[in-house]
Write a structure and sequence with these properties.
The protein is α/β, with parallel strands linked by helices and 134 residues long. The protein has seven helices and five strands.
């Protein structure tokens, strides 16, 4: 069964000063050892690249590109899924639901993915299990 990889997990892996860095490393190593397919979207990639470049710099962008990204399958978002995400954000009428999250949830539903490597509680609130270090 595939595991969805969220921005929050990738940033925690890349930032050694992040409070959840050690936990993220443990989970990542377990996922790699379990040889489960890891999936994300190009929307998550855009978010990770932008935040990593701004917060951590080009060396971290290079580490993400060279070390983490090669083992993740990227699902490229088409217009209909983008539109579904926009509709979900508008319907939710909440400031804390991003388009990236809404598209991530739609992607997980479409692919039958029920678990996410994420530190964002919105995944649980939307009916998905978050992978923890326990």
């Amino acid at each position: 069964m595939s595991v969805f990889i969220d921005t929050t997990a990738l940033l925690a892996l890349l930032d050694a000063d992040e409070a959840r860095h050690a936990e993220a490393r443990r989970i990542w190593e377990r996922l790699l050892g379990d040889d489960e397919p890891l999936v994300t979207t190009n929307y998550v990639l855009v978010e990770v690249y932008a935040l990593t470049q701004r917060r951590l710099g080009s060396a971290a962008v290079r580490a993400f590109t060279d070390d983490l990204l090669p083992v993740i399958d990227v699902d490229w978002i088409e217009r209909s899924r983008h539109d579904s995400g926009v509709s979900a954000v508008i319907a939710a009428n909440r400031r804390d639901l991003s388009l990236v999250d809404a598209v991530s949830f739609e992607t997980m539903r479409r692919h039958g993915i029920d678990r996410a490597f994420a530190f964002d509680r919105h995944f649980e609130n939307s009916g998905f299990a978050r992978i923890t270090s326990q």
